[in-house]
Amino acid sequence: MAKPNQIVHIGGINVLGLSSEDAEFYTNYPEDKVKRVVHKVDIRLVPMLAVLYLISHIDRANVGNAKIEGMIEDLGLNGVEWNVVLSVFFVPYVLLEVPSNILLKKFKRPSVYLGILIVCWGIIMTMMGVVQNFTGLLVTRILLGVFEAGFFPGAVYLCSSWYMPKDLATRISYFYCASALSGAFSGLLAAAIAKMDGVGGYEGWRWIFLLEGIVTVLLGISCFFLLIDSPALSMRWLKPDEIRYLELQKFIKDGGRYQEESEDRFRWKDLRMVLTNWRLYMQAYILLCSSACSYGTKFTLPTITKAMGFNNTNAQLMTVPPYVAGAISAIVFARLSDRFYWRLPFVAIPLCCIFVGYAVVISFKGDLSGNIGPSFFAIILTCIGIYPVQPAGSSWAANNLAPTRRRAIGVAFNICVGNIGGVIGSYMYLESEKPKYYTGFGLSLAFGATGCIVAFLLELSYKWGNYRKARLSEDEVRARYTDEQLIDLGDKSPLFKYTL
Hints:
single chain, mainly alpha, Growth Hormone, Chain: A, 24 helices
């Protein structure tokens, strides 16, 4: 057995407390078996998360589709009330993300916790189909935010538990591209479902909420049976050696851990370490830029395409190409990011696309119908820029947080602050400015530019951090700190190397 304080270097990660037997097993595990076990995880985790994330974004953003089908007129909403309805979702959504991931750690089976959330928000979605006034819509949107809050940070944390850092961005992108596709599906579904106008005495926009809510409830129930939890609970489809490999992978990724340490025990110190991590605020700002542009687009794109001169049904259908382009770009940029194991270019380039796209749109001064081709291309370019930022940004943050407890809180905090952009996105596009939308297009342009600048500063800070840590030799570090202190320091440990 290795000495308790022996440091083993595996895959560029410094690991404490790994026995020589386990180190030999992990490093000599055949490459074909590694590919087979990763494929097993891929087919069971990624498609399920993709479908669930798809439905979550459809459910939160389909009010934009219901709007042009007559919801505002039927409920008697004015311009300000519409913006309030959009933004109020994000109040509980932002506030509950960190507590939700703390609570998630208490569950032995994350699938149970996430399944409960999904069933609950599906029920709320169906209730939106029968609201009669502004108050009813407001309450259901608040409750929707309460139950949707825990899904995305929980999904990112679940992915970070199953995959090594070099594989994380691609996997997150596979289910995050569903965020882009949700816009496409939402437009297609709304165009089809709205034709049920009058069926059962309900307006077409009500059927959008009713049918999509029922589908969400069914998916939530399936989550209990289909979503995987952890290697130790996967004996039905994993072999013993595969379970051992995945458990060691998790141990190595965390830099080591003592067996007596309780992963499920919440510590205020972990929360304090996350809240005082200044780099995490830079990560969160990048996500905020992407989030503000994303939600602003989701809530307003049907209205923008209608301003190009299309009727209701065609306006819904014309929202599809930008979202499909966004989904493709999310996967392409993430695969390149993992291929080169470098995050900065694949965050900065998309943010530049956002800047350029909105600069083109705002230059037309509202004359979108007179510039359909360039306007539509610019909107597609903005979606190509919006959707790769979250996968690369989320994995960049997750890879630079340790140990496991702190990563769970930090991932949720990062997404939580980033989602404040959803509140901004709800108010950027003012009805009184339609179709010029100087505030919305201008702010989106500014977010693209400033997000790009922050990404470069963040990269420099990580390089500076690694340089400072490298000044201490391994012997100096081990003389200054005990093994327990090094593991407790997590990403602040002199032995922890930041991922660029």
